[in-house]
Design goal:
heterodimer, A: 67 residues, mainly alpha, 2 helices, B: alpha/beta, Amidase signature (AS) enzymes, eleven-stranded mixed β-sheet, 15 helices, 11 strands, 13% strand
C-alpha cells in the first residue's frame, strides 16, 4: 500500500510551527540556524517513504524463538 | 622503567609472570596523561587516587597468586557517559557538569571486578552526539596523529587516549558509529558488539534501539579480552540478551581459511566514494584473506543512504524524545551542534516514524539474507583520513551516508581495524561485520589481518 510521500521542502514558517508544537519556543535566529539541517532531514524522510510490503512490520516486543 | 606502549595482552602476560608491576605501569600511564593530555584533551577527569588504589590492589593479588584474569592490573578509562559511582559523569555537557552518580554502570562494575585500573573519564561528543563542539565546558579531543585533525566521535577521548598510549583500552558507545568512527580515524581497533550483548544500564542513552556499548583498544585481540569482561546478561537492561558468553579469544591465531567474505563494494566505491588509500587498504586486505584460504566475493545491499536515512531518523527521533523536556527549558545550555541536530526530531511525524521502523525490518531481513552464505561482510569504516577539526560543518553527518550505521540499524556486530595510512600520514580503516553473536569470528579474522600487516607497529609520533 502506497502512502503519501513527504515533500523535501520545508521553510522557516513550517519549521517554526513544528518546533513550537513540540514545545520549543525558539527565536527566529535559532530557527534559521536549524533550517539547513531540516531541509537535509526532509530528504532522508522522503527516502524512507517508499512503498513497503504488508509484511514489513516493526519489530515485536519479543522474539518467539528466543529461549 | 620500561617505556614502550604495551598491548593489554602483552601487559597481562608480563603481570602474570611478575615481570611488570601494576603500580609501576599505572604510574607510567599517569605520567603520559599529564604530559600529553594538555594537547589531546582526551581526559575530562583523571582519577589518580582511585587509579593508584586499584593498582595497589591488583599488585597485592599479583603477589599473592590471586590474579583475577588477563585484565587484572590493566589501566583503562571510561567514556564520560558511563556512570562511575562517586566520580563526576558529565556527558561532556554543561547540563551534567556537576553530576556525580551514586552507582557504577553495569559494565563499569564488570571491568572493575575483572581487576582493571580506572584512570578517569574520557571526552565524548555532547551526550554522545554533538561534536566536535567548541562551546562546551571542555574542549573536544584531538587526534594524536595530528592534533589539528578530528578524532571522529562520539567516543573521541577513548580513540585519542588509546592511540596515544594514555590507556591500554577503554569503553565506547555506538549509536551510529561512535566506536568504529574514532577507532578508524585514530588508527586503533573498536568493536560494536551485537545489539543486546553488553549492558547499557548506567550509560546515558542517546537512542534506545540503536545504542550499543563496546570496547576500544590498540588491537582486535585486546578488544576480545575487554569484551569478555563486558558481555553478559543484565536483567536491568531491557535489550540485554540472556545467552552464554563464548570465549572471545578461542579462535585467535587459527587463521581465516574457509571463511566466506562478502565485500559491499558499492558502499565505498559509488554510494559514498572512499579515499584511494582506504579502497587500496581494503583491496590489499581482501588479497591477504584470499591468499590465506578465504573465499572473497562482492555482494550488493540496498544503498548505504537507505540504511543511513532509517538509522538517522530513528536516532534523532529517539534522542529528541529523551531530551525534549530539557530542551524546552534549557535549550541554550546545550552546545549548538547537539541542540540544532536533535531539534530536528520535532519535524518527524508519527507515520514517518512508523515507516522508518517498517523499513528497518526490511533492511534487517535483507542483511540476514545476504549473510546466509557468508561469515563476514566487509566495508570501509570511514571515507578516509581524519579531516581537520575546524573543517567540519554542523550538518556534515547528514550530507553523505555513513558506512557504520547499517550495523546499528540491523544490530549485527562490526569491528573497525586500521588498514594502513593515507597521503596525509593519518590512518585509514576497514570494517568487518558478522552475524549476530559471531564476535569470535570477527576477532579471529581481524587478528589474522593485524598480525600480517605492519600497521600495529606504528604509533603517533607524539606518543613515542
Amino acid at each position: 500500500m502506497e502512502r503519501t510521500v513527504s515533500t523535501t521542502m520545508i521553510d522557516e514558517a513550517e519549521l517554526t510551527v513544528l518546533l513550537t508544537r513540540s514545545g520549543l519556543k525558539l527565536t527566529p535566529d535559532q530557527v534559521r540556524a536549524i533550517l539547513p539541517g531540516a531541509e537535509l532531514f526532509r530528504g532522508m524522510i522522503a527516502r524512507i517513504n517508499v512503498p513497503l510490503p504488508r509484511e514489513a512490520e516493526p519489530a515485536l516486543t519479543f522474539d518467539v524463538e528466543q529461549q | 622503567m620500561m617505556s614502550a606502549i604495551l598491548t593489554i595482552a602483552e601487559a597481562g602476560r608480563r603481570i602474570a609472570a611478575r615481570q611488570l608491576s601494576p603500580i609501576e605501569l599505572t604510574k607510567m600511564q599517569l605520567e603520559r596523561i599529564h604530559r600529553l593530555n594538555p594537547q589531546l584533551h582526551a581526559f575530562l577527569l583523571v582519577s589518580e587516587e582511585r587509579a593508584l588504589a586499584d593498582a595497589g590492589a591488583a599488585e597485592a593479588r599479583q603477589m599473592s597468586g590471586q590474579r583475577r584474569g588477563p585484565l587484572d592490573g590493566i589501566p583503562i578509562a571510561h567514556k564520560d557517559i558511563y556512570n562511575t559511582a562517586g566520580i563526576r559523569t558529565t556527558a561532556h555537557s554543561k547540563l551534567l557538569q556537576d553530576n556525580i552518580p551514586v552507582r557504577d554502570a553495569h559494565t563499569v562494575k564488570k571491568w572493575a571486578d575483572a581487576g582493571t585500573v580506572m584512570l578517569g573519564k574520557l571526552a565524548t561528543h555532547e551526550f554522545a552526539f554533538g561534536g566536535p563542539s567548541f562551546d562546551l565546558p571542555w574542549p573536544p579531543a584531538r587526534n594524536p596523529w595530528n592534533i589539528d585533525h578530528f578524532t571522529a566521535g562520539s567516543s573521541s577521548g577513548t580513540g585519542a587516549a588509546v592511540a596515544a598510549g594514555l590507556i591500554l583500552g577503554g569503553t565506547g558507545s555506538d549509536t551510529g558509529g561512535s566506536i568504529r568512527g574514532p577507532a578508524a580515524l585514530c588508527g586503533i581497533a573498536g568493536i560494536k558488539p551485537t545489539y543486546g550483548l553488553s549492558s547499557r544500564t548506567g550509560i546515558l542513552p542517546l537512542a534506545f534501539t540503536l545504542d550499543h556499548a563496546g570496547p576500544m583498544a590498540w588491537t582486535a585481540e585486546d578488544c576480545a579480552l575487554l569484551l569478555q569482561a563486558m558481555a553478559g546478561h543484565d536483567p536491568n537492561d531491557p535489550a540485554s540478551v540472556d545467552r552464554q558468553v563464548p570465549d572471545y579469544t578461542a579462535g585467535i591465531g587459527t587463521g581465516v581459511k574457509g571463511l566466506r567474505i562478502g565485500v559491499v563494494r558499492h558502499f565505498f566505491e559509488t554510494d559514498h566514494r572512499a579515499s584511494d588509500a582506504t579502497r587500496a587498504g581494503i583491496d590489499a586486505a581482501m588479497d591477504f584473506f584470499r591468499k590465506e584460504g578465504a573465499e572473497v566475493r562482492d555482494i550488493t545491499l540496498s544503498p548505504a543512504a537507505d540504511y543511513h536515512a532509517v538509522g538517522y531518523l530513528l536516532m534523532i527521533t529517539e534522542a529528541f524524545a529523551l531530551h525534549a523536556p530539557w530542551m524546552r527549558e534549557r535549550f541554550m545550555d546545550y552546545g549548538e551542534l547537539f541542540r540544532d541536530r536533535v531539534a530536528l526530531g520535532a519535524t518527524v511525524s508519527g507515520p514517518d516514524l512508523m515507516q522508518a521502523q517498517r523499513r528497518r525490518r526490511v533492511l534487517c531481513r535483507e542483511m540476514a539474507a545476504a549473510m546466509e552464505n557468508l561469515d563476514i561482510i566487509v566495508s570501509a569504516s570511514q571515507p578516509g583520513e581524519a579531516p581537520r577539526i575546524d573543517a567540519l560543518t554542523k550538518w556534515a553527518n547528514m550530507e553523505k551516508p555513513s558506512f557504520t550505521m547499517p550495523f546499528n540499524v540491523t544490530g549485527f556486530p562490526a569491528i573497525s581495524v586500521c588498514a594502513g595510512f593515507g597521503a596525509g600520514g593519518l590512518p585509514v580503516a576497514m570494517q568487518m561485520a558478522a552475524k549476530p553473536f559471531a564476535e569470535p569470528l570477527l576477532f579471529r579474522a581481524a587478528h589474522a589481518y593485524e598480525t600480517a600487516m605492519p600497521w600495529r607497529g606504528r604509533r603517533p609520533a607524539m606518543a613515542v
